[in-house]
Amino acid sequence: QVQFVESGGGLVQPGGSLRLSCAASGSIFSISSMGWYRQAPGEQRELVAAFTSGGRTSYADSAKSRFTISRDNAKNTVYLQMNSLKPEDTAMYYCNAEIRNSGSSTWGNYWGQGTQVTVSS
Known about the structure:
- The protein has strands spanning about 1-5, 10, 20-25, 30-40, 45-50, 55-60, 65-70, 75-80, 90-100, 105-110, 115-120.
- By secondary structure, it is mainly β.
């Protein structure tokens, strides 16, 4: 099994900042990709920012100028620094990773439980 510890969500005013953290643990041999997705009520889940399997970063157009994704490979942790937050950023943010489990030759896709981000005055 793989577990995610997600933190950093909360309520902030427009223009404020939050830093999300996602730490993966458990039966992990290696991580191919890891990042953050979000889903607002009534909308589809969308990618916010992620490290791809090739080590490149990918951002949503709405996030690329304001958000920065980073990682600590030694801790199996990815961070999302979110600045200049807007009300439209309000959503449940989910950590996602493609992980090869210890003792396995295959890859699996895993999701965290989510952390709520609310941007409101």
